[in-house]
UniProtKB/TrEMBL annotation:
Pfam families: ATP-synt_ab, T3SS_ATPase_C. This is Flagellum-specific ATP synthase. Its main location: cytoplasm. It catalyses: ATP + H2O + cellular proteinSide 1 = ADP + phosphate + cellular proteinSide 2. Residues 162-345 form the AAA+ ATPase domain. One of its GO terms (molecular function) is proton-transporting ATP synthase activity, rotational mechanism. It is found in: Cytoplasm. GO terms for cellular component: cytoplasm; type III protein secretion system complex. Keywords: ATP synthesis, ATP-binding, Bacterial flagellum biogenesis, Bacterial flagellum protein export, Cytoplasm, Hydrogen ion transport, Ion transport, Nucleotide-binding, Protein transport, Translocase, Transport. Belongs to the ATPase alpha/beta chains family. Its EC number is 7.1.2.2. SMART domains: AAA (SM00382). It comes from the Bacteria.
Amino acid sequence: MTRRLAMTAQQLLGPIDLAQASPRRIGTLVAHEGIMLEVSGFPQPLGSNVRIKTAAGDYVNGEVVGFRGHRSLVLPFDTNLPLATGAPVEPHGASSMVACGKALLGRIIDAQGNPLDGRPPVKSPFQWPLAGRKVNPLRRGRVTKPLNMGVRAINGLLTVGEGQRVAIVAGSGVGKSVLMGQMIAGTECDVIVVGLIGERSREVSDFVETKLPPAVRKKSVVVAVPADHPPLLRLRAAMRATAIAEAFRQEGKKVLLLIDSLTRVAHAQREIGLTLGEPPTMKGYPPSVFALIPSLCERAGIDRQTGGSVTALYTVLADGGDIEDPVVDSARAIVDGHIILSRTLAEQGVYPAIDVARSLSRTMVDSVDPDHAAAAARFRQLWSAYEENRDLMLMGAYVAGSDPILDEAIRRHPDQLAFVKQPAGAQVDFQSSRQSLIEGYSA
Ligand SMILES: Nc1ncnc2c1ncn2[C@@H]1O[C@H](COP(=O)(O)OP(=O)(O)OP(=O)(O)O)[C@@H](O)[C@H]1O
Ligand SMILES: [Mg+2]
């Protein structure tokens, strides 16, 4: 088989040194289109890692992502090196396993597991597949235990349970990353895994310096890939962060996984899918994007066998506040809760700018007691009454006394905003959040 393909390459390209091609199956770079490379004489399976020798004698790593006829399609991890036609391409290392476990705690790595923190390479005998392990759905536990996230409005009104998956949806600059940092500092868990994907490079160091105080940092792993890196690396970073979280769960740990942002991961898959010739659908996203989001989010959850859990938060960018965006829609359909941040609240200085009426935790009913649930429902009722009638009130068309609920909503509105407001550096635990909600809003 190898030989026959090598022959094809030979016919296409003229003389190739076949002795060199075997036994290491060296392929030949024959085309470069956009970000994609075509390699002939190289029948490696999908997902294989390869390296290509550049004109300068260095190597560029890449991955086999598809086929076209008898040629393999390879995406390189570095796009700026001088590649020449006829360059040799060879298999390079076992591709799909990720170093995991406690050797990673306190470390900052890139999509390929290389250290970014100036410390020695991470060595760990504990390896886990990049794409995760398929599990029997019955092995996944139900979400029934509230997890303290350190944010009053979330603990009280949008209670996150251990093993839940939550999307934080907002336009740019409304406070997603700050809220995430607040939850990192406040969440009660054993390990925190953060995937910083497609952010500005400046934000990576900013994140590490401002949102990871030493006590938190020693139980955290950061996988960071800024926006200027090739799409395959951005995609792999999200998968690597998820794999690291899964491996800690396998050891029975309570893990918090944060992906900032899922939209950038979807953009990376969009670039790859379109290059591979997939048809664009809504907003130019090819179908593979809508397969990727569930496959990534489904990996979080509780493992009944080990007792470990991965509670996951994904930030999703809603351009121009558009929550009908296909990525938002597809993420909302798969996660068990969404926290929508409102630009209007942020502009009023209400931080975290949680739009209580439009946000929802679907598993909250299973994790809180009836008093707590009733108080949260009451809070929501008043909040929504105020929101729905805001225009009427602004026009002066509402006459006080005509609707008792609205009257109370107007009277209580400042209290409600005060309940949601919380300075970025402050933490409120689950019990006190519950207590103040019940005190203010029990029926
Ligand atoms: N809790 C807060 N208290 C005070 N200011 C805040 C708070 N949260 C956000 N801000 C303000 O909003 C700005 C943007 O916040 P942040 O970086 O979290 O937004 P983002 O939604 O992550 O933006 P992007 O879409 O660019 O990633 C901050 O620089 C800060 O000025
Ligand atoms: Mg951000």
